[in-house]
Amino acid sequence: MGWLSRLAGLTEHLKLDVLMKFDIGSGQGVAALRWIVTRPHASLSDEQSRIALVALLYARTLVNHQETRGELFDRMAHAARRALQGDGNLTFEPWKLHVAGKDFSIWPWVLTEPGRVTDARTYTATLQSTSGGSLAIHLKMALGQVRILAPSSALIAAFGLARALNDTDCTRLAEVLLGINAHYRSSDSISLGSERSALATAMPALVR
C-alpha cells in the first residue's frame, strides 16, 4: 500500500493493528492493539499522531456503518464527557447487538497483548498526510463478523489508547473525539468521505 500512497501524494506515518478474536458461541471477544511508526510526523508527537489515527478510525466507522452509527456516536460522546468531568479514562457502557435472535457483545472486550490473540481478525488503520498537510486514514478490514467487529474496533482503539496515555493526553483524546462529534452535530448528518474534514474541525484540540 505504501507505493500507492506515494503515487497519490500521501505520506504514511503510523499504523494501528486492531487484532480481534470474537467467539460466536459465547458472544464475547478478546483484542489487542499493535502500533507501528513508519515515519514520524514532522509537527505531531507520537501521542498526538496516535490520537489523530484513533479519531479518524472512529470517524471512518461512523461513516461506513449506518446500523450502529447512532449508538456509537452517543456512546463515544458519553465516555468522552465523563473523561473530561474527572473519570480519568474512557469507559464505555456494555453494548449488545441483537443479530438473528442472539445478543452479541460489542462492548466490553478483554484487552491483552498482541501475541496472546491467536487467529485474530485484524483491522489495520494507517495515518497519512497529504501534500497540503491535512491528515487522512487508510483502513484495511478483515473479512467476517463486520457488524460486530467494525464498531468494536473504534471502541477498542479509543479505550486501549486512553489507558496508555497520561492524564493530559487522555484529556486531549476525549476533546478530539468530541470535536469529531461536534463537526457532525448529529449521527443523522454523517456523509460519505467526511472523516478528513471531521478531524480538521477537531485539530485545535489536538495541537493546542
Would you summarize the structure shown here?
With 208 residues, the protein is α+β, with helices and mostly antiparallel strands. It has helices spanning 2-7, 46-64, 66-87, 146-164, 167-184, 195-207; strands at residues 11-23, 28-37, 95-99, 102-107, 110-111, 121-129, 135-140.
Explain the overall architecture.
The chain contains six helices and seven strands, in the order αββααβββββααα. Helix 2 (46-64) runs antiparallel to helix 6 and helix 5 runs antiparallel to helix 6 (195-207). The protein has one domain. It has a five-stranded mixed sheet. Strands 3-4 form a two-stranded antiparallel ribbon. 47% of the residues lie in helices and 25% in strands. By secondary structure, the chain is α+β, with helices and mostly antiparallel strands. The two termini are 32 Å apart. The chain has helices spanning 2-7, 46-64, 66-87, 146-164, 167-184, 195-207; strands at 11-23, 28-37, 95-99, 102-107, 110-111, 121-129, 135-140.
Which characteristics define this entry?
single chain, 208 residues, alpha+beta, 5-stranded mixed sheet, 7 strands
Walk me through the topology.
Layout lengths: L1 H6 L3 E13 L4 E10 L8 H19 L1 H22 L7 E5 L2 E6 L2 E2 L9 E9 L5 E6 L5 H19 L2 H18 L10 H13 L1
Parallel strand pairs: 2-5
Antiparallel strand pairs: 1-2, 1-6, 3-4, 6-7
Helix pairs in contact: 2-3, 2-4, 2-5, 2-6, 3-5, 5-6
